[in-house]
Write a structure and sequence with these properties.
The protein is of the alpha+beta class and 137 residues long. Strands 1-2-8-7-6-3 form a 6-stranded antiparallel β-sheet, with no helix packed on it. Strands 4-5 form a two-stranded parallel sheet. The longest helix is centred in the first third of the chain and has 21 residues. The radius of gyration is 31 Å and the shape is globular. The termini are far apart. 18% of the residues are buried.
């Protein structure tokens, strides 16, 4: 003998199944999730010198500039106005401050570049040294 279920009985059975599922799902052991958070910020002198130990770096307005970027050295650039000078020679990247350079001597003049905001020029006895801004994002 086959008994047919009415709509109300099917709905009641579905609701009971859903309630049981939610009860089990909510009381089971939580699954551990790993989330990666990416923070974009400019590299510090210490970080850059860990990657490029022999790099020549200069810090201006909390941004690190580095010399020896081949494509920057190949650009035709015109020196702009004098911006600042190296205030202190500092070999310790962890204590770098604005005005510090690790290879350039204190007093080395630093100039803007016409039509470029990401490159500076240091005037050295050996000629101009181009410094490229290290920024993320």
């Amino acid at each position: 003998m086959t008994r047919k279920l009415g709509f109300g009985q099917i709905t009641l059975a579905a609701a009971a199944s859903l309630a049981l599922f939610l009860l089990v799902a909510c009381t089971s052991e939580p699954q551990s999730r790993t989330e990666q958070i990416s923070v974009t910020q400019n590299p510090t002198a210490a970080e850059w010198l860990k990657l490029e130990a022999q790099a020549s770096v200069f810090q201006y307005e909390d941004v690190i500039y580095t010399a020896g970027v081949s494509w920057v050295d190949e650009l035709e650039l015109k020196r702009g106005e004098r911006l600042t000078e190296v205030l202190r020679q500092n070999k310790d990247g962890d204590s770098f401050q604005n005005g510090d350079a690790n290879h350039l001597k204190a007093g080395t003049p630093i100039y803007r570049v016409k039509d470029r905001g990401d490159i500076l020029i240091a005037e050295t006895p050996d000629g101009d040294l181009r410094l490229y801004q290290l920024v993320e994002g």
